[in-house]
Amino acid sequence: MIKLKRAYEPYETTDGYRMLVDRLWPRGVSKEDAKIDEWVKDIARSTELRKWYSHEVPKWPVFQQLYTEELQKNEGTTLRAIKEKQAKETVTFVYAAKDEAHTHALVLKDFIRSMKK
Questions:
Q1: 18: Cβ–Cβ under 8 A, 6 or more apart, which residues?
Q2: pLDDT tens by residue, 29-75
Q3: Are 37 and 81 in contact (CB under 8 A)?
Q4: Whole-number Å distance between alpha carbons of 53 and 103
Q5: Structural domain that includes position 23
Q6: Distance between CA atoms of 23 and 9, rounded to whole angstroms?
Q7: What is the pTM of this model?
Q8: How far apart are CA 92 and CA 21, in angstroms?
Q9: What is d(CA 6, CA 54) in angstroms, rounded to the nearest whole number?
Q10: For the chain, what is the domain count?
């Protein structure tokens, strides 16, 4: 199972294995408070895509497509390892974005669910 959680929300034991899925560390969050098990920068959206999107909701459909294309190009060991891990235990994708309905973490979650084993 994959859960999503903002980096600014408190840690809970039900989070399971916590993965920071942003390329940048969340502002104002200490490493101790974040309780991150793994920081997977290599599967975060590219800097160029992040800057282009800039959390502008009208761009969301195009952003989803472009980020999915980035993930397809990088579909390697990290993504397969996450797919295997989430089949055995809860994995929580931790991200910093304020807009919980339009975050790259949603796209990443859907992409991993759609991957073949």
A1: 5, 11, 34, 35, 36, 37, 38, 91, 92, 94
A2: 999 999 999 999 989 999 999 999 999 999 999 999 999 999 998 77
A3: no
A4: 10
A5: 2-114
A6: 19
A7: 0.92
A8: 10
A9: 17
A10: 1
**Are 85 and 91 spatial neighbours (Cβ–Cβ below 8 Å)?**
yes
Q: Which residue in 91, 84, 103 sits closest to 26, CA to CA?
A: 103
Q: 55 in the Ramachandran plot: left (φ > 0), alpha (ψ -120 to 50) or beta?
A: left
Going from the C-alpha of 87 to that of each of 2, 15, 40, 106, the distances in angstroms are 9, 14, 18, 18
DSSP-assigned states of every residue in the chain? -EEEEETTSPP-GGG-EEEE--SSPPTT--HHHHT-SEE-GGGSPPHHHHHHHTT-GGGHHHHHHHHHHHHHHT-SHHHHHHHHHHHHS-EEEEE--S-TTS-HHHHHHHHHHHS--
CB atoms within 10 A of CB 28: 9
Six token digits for residue 11: 């840690």
